[in-house]
Amino acid sequence: MASAANKARVVVDKAFRIAEVDKRIYGSFIEHLGRAVYGGIYDPSHPETDSLGFREDVKQLVQELGVPIIRYPGGNFVSGYNWEDGVGPRESRPRRLELAWRTIEPNEVGTNEFMAWAKEIGSEVMMAVNLGTRGVDAARNLLEYCNHPSGSYWSDLRRSHGYDQPHKVKTWCLGNEMDGPWQIGQKTPQEYGRLAYETGKAMKLVDPDIELVSCGSSSTGMPTFPEWEAITLDHTYDVADFVSLHQYYGNRDGDSANFLARTMDMDHFIRTVISTCDYVKAKKRSKKTMYLSFDEWNVWYHSNDADTKIDPWTVGPPQLEDVYNFEDALLVGGMLITFLKHADRVKMACLAQLVNVIAPIMTETGGRSWKQTIFYPYLHASRYGRGVSLQPIVDSPKYDAQDYTDVPYLETAVVYNEEEEELTIFALNRHLEEALDVECDVRGFEGYQIAEHIVLENDDLKAVNTAAEENVKPHSRGSAALKDGFVSTRLSKASWNVIRLKKA
Ligand code: AHR
Could you list the residue range(s) of the whole structural domain that residue 299 is in? Predict the structure, then answer.
């Protein structure tokens, strides 16, 4: 038996509503980077592709994840991209030096092909415009090309390229990480704020139905965070609907207890950005609430050394190919829980990225595809985390880690799907050595029964999946039982759990 110290109590009630979960928090990201496009989603060398050269097996894996929105085409790539290079007859498209990642961009895949791919797999696209080397004109032209039905220069050009119907892209990012010294065309907050406002203004004149994302800081580690948000939003507040957040974590020093506590940092990041948005709102006497688009997040550190050895100026080299282990999957689960806890303000989020590049899905060029460890918590949240996010009242034992104090062993979020009459408890046990007994009061959910208790567990925190072997995969033999309105279960040490209840 676990000792009394390893017992957590949770109370869940329908009345404790945070907000309806916007399904777009389960978004992802495809950048023209490494083998994400060339050798990833697109691979004419593969035996099973569609008429455009997109891999069927990859489409199926993306569809399994149910990705509602995909950010495209960058990332750092977008800050040097001429979108016009990627439309029109493929044989006349230029090969360009791609400066963000120092590769050759052949432009075999561009806006129309990507839109066709996304449509087929049932995802919306979150399109980014280049505010690095370009500005208002290129952005408004791209929007006209994509969204205007017909009867204008750019919309008729799209039609002449074989895409009669407008793509109707709703969500647009005003540049990418414009605070970063690595960014082509980096800007000061004042420069970015003015440019983003004027670009957004012109774009909303072309299509008033779009939503715009103003660039936030590249991470909490930036010296200008959160002043960047305060200054840029002062310019863009009236035209933008979201501000972006980006954050990646790693376990370089091998301190797993500290690594799994990184959700504390993410939570603090979100709270700080909310406060900054609300400060600008108050300053402007605005009635509008700014929402958060956490449009890059993941674990990223495994591939950093390998990337320094890659030859420049090749097409689709293997860049940022992190091989994820079991503890990475646990943190990814914790990060998804963090979004659910902020469902009232975080309305979009993109796991960066989707295929091959820091991704849940891996491929061999021309060969096999497989699921990385992080595929699973992402799949579970996307599949079962739709409905109303409820605020659980949690009493959990805690620990102190290197960078955080009072870290609850139990990290949890609860989603109530009224339509399907389902209640899902997502629970991470961060204790690396011991199981955690959890008792959860669900007396408000009369007539509900346990449908499934999914568990992702492994004795080896460093276990990985490969094309040949899936060492980390979930099972449904969790111990959750329901009696007199209380769910009780023992969560294995270091485990990700999805406890699903359904009305009988
Ligand atoms: O996702 C990889 C890179 O990380 C993106 O291109 C950039 O926006 C971020 O720095």
Answer: 22-252+291-384
